[in-house]
Fold this sequence. Notes:
L-amino peptidase D-ALA esterase/amidase, homotetramer, alpha+beta, 7 helices, 4-stranded mixed beta sheet
Amino acid sequence: TRPREAAVHFGILPTGSLNAITDVPGVKVGHFTKIQGENIRTGVTAILPHGGNIFQQKVPAAVYVGNGFGKLAGTTQVMELGNIETPIILTNTLSVAAGIEGVVKYSLSQAGNENVQSVNAVVGETNDGYLNDIRGMHISSDEVIKAIQSAASGAIAEGNVGAGTGTVCFGWKGGIGTSSRKLPESLGGYTVGVIVQTNFGGNLQIAGVPVGEKLGKYPFKDALEKSDGSCMIVVATDAPVLDRNLERMAKRAMMGLAKTGGIASNGSGDYVIAFSTAEGLRIPYSMPSGKLEEAAYLRNDDMTPLFMAVIEATEEAIINSLFAAESMKGKDQHQVEKLPVGQVLEWVKNK
Amino acid sequence: TRPREAAVHFGILPTGSLNAITDVPGVKVGHFTKIQGENIRTGVTAILPHGGNIFQQKVPAAVYVGNGFGKLAGTTQVMELGNIETPIILTNTLSVAAGIEGVVKYSLSQAGNENVQSVNAVVGETNDGYLNDIRGMHISSDEVIKAIQSAASGAIAEGNVGAGTGTVCFGWKGGIGTSSRKLPESLGGYTVGVIVQTNFGGNLQIAGVPVGEKLGKYPFKDALEKSDGSCMIVVATDAPVLDRNLERMAKRAMMGLAKTGGIASNGSGDYVIAFSTAEGLRIPYSMPSGKLEEAAYLRNDDMTPLFMAVIEATEEAIINSLFAAESMKGKDQHQVEKLPVGQVLEWVKNK
Amino acid sequence: TRPREAAVHFGILPTGSLNAITDVPGVKVGHFTKIQGENIRTGVTAILPHGGNIFQQKVPAAVYVGNGFGKLAGTTQVMELGNIETPIILTNTLSVAAGIEGVVKYSLSQAGNENVQSVNAVVGETNDGYLNDIRGMHISSDEVIKAIQSAASGAIAEGNVGAGTGTVCFGWKGGIGTSSRKLPESLGGYTVGVIVQTNFGGNLQIAGVPVGEKLGKYPFKDALEKSDGSCMIVVATDAPVLDRNLERMAKRAMMGLAKTGGIASNGSGDYVIAFSTAEGLRIPYSMPSGKLEEAAYLRNDDMTPLFMAVIEATEEAIINSLFAAESMKGKDQHQVEKLPVGQVLEWVKNK
Amino acid sequence: TRPREAAVHFGILPTGSLNAITDVPGVKVGHFTKIQGENIRTGVTAILPHGGNIFQQKVPAAVYVGNGFGKLAGTTQVMELGNIETPIILTNTLSVAAGIEGVVKYSLSQAGNENVQSVNAVVGETNDGYLNDIRGMHISSDEVIKAIQSAASGAIAEGNVGAGTGTVCFGWKGGIGTSSRKLPESLGGYTVGVIVQTNFGGNLQIAGVPVGEKLGKYPFKDALEKSDGSCMIVVATDAPVLDRNLERMAKRAMMGLAKTGGIASNGSGDYVIAFSTAEGLRIPYSMPSGKLEEAAYLRNDDMTPLFMAVIEATEEAIINSLFAAESMKGKDQHQVEKLPVGQVLEWVKNK
């Protein structure tokens, strides 16, 4: 059960019909999940801004670094040029090379890219090394391509799938989560979608309830436990937003994470990648020199509802990942329990 | 009544003895409040990192820009050099010039600064123009110096004082608020103190209770209301933290703001200034050329408890500002009500 | 004589007709020069992106910090919103407050701004304290307004005028300098203009000739002399460039400075402010909510000629300031000599 | 012949004994050059900050992005934590994945790293696709490890070796170049070393002589030619400099590049990585929690000579790469000529 099906709300804006990043038209998501033997618990999640050739039709994009203890590839080019030209890949920390290799091979082999000699792969990660034999580097570039090729519209599997297969969040089993918001027509009617790979710690709060404290799991409880870990966040919108304002949207995702009790600990790699799917803002790879880009885009003054949508959808996506994840046993017999969802729902409803 | 006196808690770490930024030894705060006639409702708040000559004994510092629709002066030098060399001034948007002039005159006139020709004044602001005749520019540089000279250790007045005199927050009367955290000895025993000037909007949440929604005050309720406004946040610590890690601490303050329901709207000037008072990290103005700085400072790995302290203290300082502020009538008969504290406390206790 | 009149060239692109920032249509520049008694040698330079109400018709803009030991006001808002809404003021370090006050008063008093309550003044400075009694803070807000009001199109006075009145550069008298480049029509035909306030040190190189070494004035010659000081650089273009690419243009100005031998020493406040005057990119203060901005702007791929133009024009503007400045005696009988232009020209021509 | 052997000087500071990055004690450099058949012209260059286990003994470091059209991996963690924990790898654009994989495998396999689960590989690149079949992705992770394992102290091969095998610079054959500066004892006696992988365009200037113009090779000569390409720059110093000031040093390398006529075109990936080898600033992977770092480091005020050293050594390293590179024929019979060194030397000497 997703929290919203149990009447738990996060904020005031309505969700899209799927309450998923795929409510943003054109966005596709694919998971490759790798659970093998006792020690392999990992995977790949691919997010495609649109179904066409992304390299030929780049999308405006931005990256915000919440806390940079992570290996996200591709950041400086996104920041410099304001666009993304490949699928976005999420995987485990030591498989970023496989992620890049997969994205590069995929891009080079697409029809129309026969002469391409430079590809900026955007590959994020969190560390699933507690449940997964991460040092084994078990993801191959072919598996990354599989995740890309399996990407589809529609509902998205959450929890222990794809890049969330082996992650841990607030001491409970984490994973993939997603959510969306649809602005009222009076505010533009735009959709904002978020997908997260949750692998971080902090003082868990769900819909305002201090769940971490109630369950006795919170940072430095014994002045000993660490609370490290990371969260990768991808934000999509069909609103026509250029790169500078996409960066501002990305920044707000960390505020949604904060509402779940995340603290962006020293060891966390918390990154937000935001892009716009607005067709009028596509950036073609080839254009006649000197031809101006003609575009219609949102002004600063109209960004606030989108900021709020990002905050709300990020909070809900993170909690969704916790609700969907199941208990898992993995490497070295490590066991991580599922959040006690029934107990949490009781608290939330009685507050 | 402060929330904590009513047994409302924010997070898990204990506060310092005053639950104020002045729990950080050496930090001094001074208010100059200007309420005159029907239209003047403004003021100045000065925060002094220590009681000595700050220009001669600079402190490590950093600035984080949560949202930069604001006029904070002095940022680039703080970022470049990693230190602050003056009192920090908070005031209204159109009085930043008076703030700088006051700080410069104060610094030039201090004993020992007779040959100083360059002063980097750090002056922040929020816009109190709803209650205050801000276009009148009613703050003078002398009044800024008064705020500096009145700075003292000990308990701090909150609410409608100093730079918070005319501010509005979440649709209620905002103002100055402060809070602190004291880490357990096992985590270093350091103190983190926060002071805020609250003048922003969003979807108010207090200790997890969706107060904004319950009271029917939240952004875009009628798809019309704007939710703009700003928050200035100053973070002090006696932990020996260098500038890079101070910036990371500053970044976490926005996560505390997020927990109160702030959304960092387009029009907000949300800034965080963080400094360390650790005596071993003072940066003398004059030193023999070539002499190395010798210092002992916290490593990255030990920063997480301080991050959590910043988040908690910022959340509480903001809510403290709302609890302390009183209803006010000002410019053009504008009236802003005090938060209905009794109602809120009931909700919080029954959750 | 300007170097170009003596057949000295900087780079390969042609200049505009005035070889000045005012070659960019609409840009106006005003100087207020204050030379009084033996000790006052300072002033103000105002740069207006266009002749209308800038607050109501903001221009896309960016700031790049070459080295941030300076007090440039207004940076964070320019970076956040991507625009400038006031005249740009240059003055001395301790008169930034007067600069802000002047800009705010000017803006508040303009017809159409009667309800404006927030103004982001952009005020830069360098330190003229060697020749000028800077501690006297001899610039008033009225004098700042005078500089704004005197702004005009056409040729610009260089050397010991306005904000360059008392500055020192490479050990010689510095001041105001300006230059421009006009791209060939095949590259868009755009104009780039630069104006500088030169007050920095380094190892002077003019058109490739190591003038500093030949004249025996260079940093650490005696392993003693410092080489501090600052350079304020303003870049204007009529090319339709949005804020992200304006920031990239701004960044290239420091490369032009590098070609003169500047080293961006620790104590320098080297900042570049860039804006576009393209009428199609104006950002109106008031627009109906939700209405998209419709614009045509240059793509990343077409930026390189503009980058080259910035580099060339910045190098030439700096050298122009040195050629135009005259020897000056000021505070405490300090004397700074004019660059020996005849000697330099001989070297340059014989190379 | 290196230019300096022909009495060409760049700036005023003396070089180290090798005039190479390896003048910084402890720094090692290794090349793997891959020239196969008619189409493979590529390689790997590895720079090791010290000869020990870098993961266990990290070094303070910073990254500066001159222009971010590039794929440099590892940037955000270096910026967040202020250190580097692996060898630095340079290779071609589409082999960054191989670079990361090589560094990760190398690091995981080092004695003492048996439990390491997270490695931040720093891998830079430029695009050698004109001479090299870059789409073939001919570099393997094993070849990256070979470059690391071959790293040595002492003189460094320049020109068509390692990551510079197939690069092109200013229209001539580029490659690897290196240079150093040794400050006089009165300024600390520190050494600064630079190594570059040159693959960029612009208006070539050598020791002040406008070589590009004289040879008729410069950007937009026919308003048609593009001038894209990249430069990777690595700066090492034994001066005890913390991360913030290392970033400032990194920034100055772009000023050295500017002096060679580089323009940081739109398509360039110009990055600078700077680190300090000072033993007192090593950052151990494991330390008792709460233990302060005790260090002695350079103050802001003493940085200027190091800034100048970076500028000079970068300029010279770039020119060294051009002098050392030889003409090469590669992919699709593409031919790139060697800079006409004799002619250049004549011009330089006669200036």
